[in-house]
Amino acid sequence: MKIQSIRGMNDILPDDSAKWQYVEHHLAxxxxxxxxREIRFPILEQSELFNRTIGSVxxxxxxxxxxxxxxxGDNLSLRPEGxxxxxxxxxxxxxxxxxxxxxxxxxxxxxxxRPQKGRLRQFHQLGAEVFGLPGPDIDAEILIMTARLWxxxxxxxxxxxQINSLGDLExxxxxxxxxxxxxxxxxxxxxxxxxxxxxxxxxxxLDSKNPSVQSLLSDAPNLSDFLGESSRxxxxxxxxxxxxxxxxxxxxxxxVRGLDYYSRTVFEWVTDSLGAQGTVCGGGRFxxxxxxxxxxACHGVGFSIGLERLLLLLDAKSAFPDSVNDRLDVYIVAxxxxxxxxxxxxxxxxxxxxxxxxxxxxxxxxxxxxxxxADKSGARLALILGExxxxxxxxxxxxxREKRDQDTIDQNCLIEHMNNIYS
Length: 423
Ligand code: ATP
Ligand code: MG
Hints:
CATH topology of the largest domain: BirA Bifunctional Protein, domain 2
Number of strands: 16
Strand content: 15-25%
CATH architecture of the largest domain: 2-Layer Sandwich
Distance between the termini: 53 Å
Bound molecules: adenosine-5'-triphosphate, magnesium ion
CATH class of the largest domain: Alpha Beta
CATH superfamily of the largest domain: Bira Bifunctional Protein, Domain 2
Strand order of the largest sheet: 1-5-6-11-10-9-7-8
Radius of gyration: 28 Å
């Protein structure tokens, strides 16, 4: 029996890794240009960290966590998201002491969900968190930054911003009372899941995907009517800043997000090009989370991007440029007893052209067989070295992707010749 991977945990194969690198490169570049710095923290944390922050009546904690006891009997979990670990690391290392921070991270997250397109058990997120800034200026900047990112990746026309305000804790407590009394009056129209949540976490019902629950909710009380003065003002300022920056958005009063720690601004970037898994990026403000993890009160706001979904969207929109590939530039064909010379030429080229992908044929074989490999590799050039060329200190150059006659050049002119080709 062959050993198989775990369901929902995919391998990223060499044919795809250039796409990942392309996206990761652009993400890192944009974040850096806004002053963010990378933080790396463990994939495994004490389960308590997630139980305390994400909320006990959320999909993640109720049914998606990979938790286990290790050899010491400690209860550990694979991280289902990055914010909790980022907050933990920032508190523990004193990053939040009298200073603000703009941080980003990237890596795998783990949730035991039903695998399908855009939904995996090991998936990857790029996340960013800002600490120590109350907003609304930074809330808007985050949205402007993500919009820039979609522009850079060429998907701005297929992805839309939805935003909402969850208000402050006191606002939500007042709202929850009204919501529960409304929903209790219409208990018969709720599904089993929502009935359970009526007791445990009624706000979650707003998130229900069930159409009949959704239609009931259109008559339900609106959280926006319960926002206190300062939450309302905060939200207005965020939307005003988005207007000034000419960022389109929709206010979605149902948007609550799947985690408990949010307050005030929440948002999602959604697309209808990916079927049901349309949320590519989600985030919001979490002004109480640092305290919940045991730090001194500190404002926070952030977002995370689901990278599998982002790549699916770029594929769906054919937004990857042609240059995103893992094709070779140069293939060195070495026939006969010329290994040392071929190796020396390859090394010289790699010194002179650090960014070219150069493969030297290894393993011998006929000229014909080697040239076939050169062609298959996608390389633009084949450099040909046989025993005659070696004796004459020359090299053949075959242009594999152009209608152009083969050249024979002096080995001393190779760098100059290559410079002409690649200028
Ligand atoms: P969804 O509503 O799709 O379940 P979520 O609200 O659970 O998403 P978040 O916790 O906000 O997702 O995570 C941020 C982003 O990470 C999502 O918008 C999505 O792009 C991605 N994501 C979340 N869960 C998965 C998963 N199981 N597989 C792939 N990507 C995921
Ligand atoms: Mg989910």
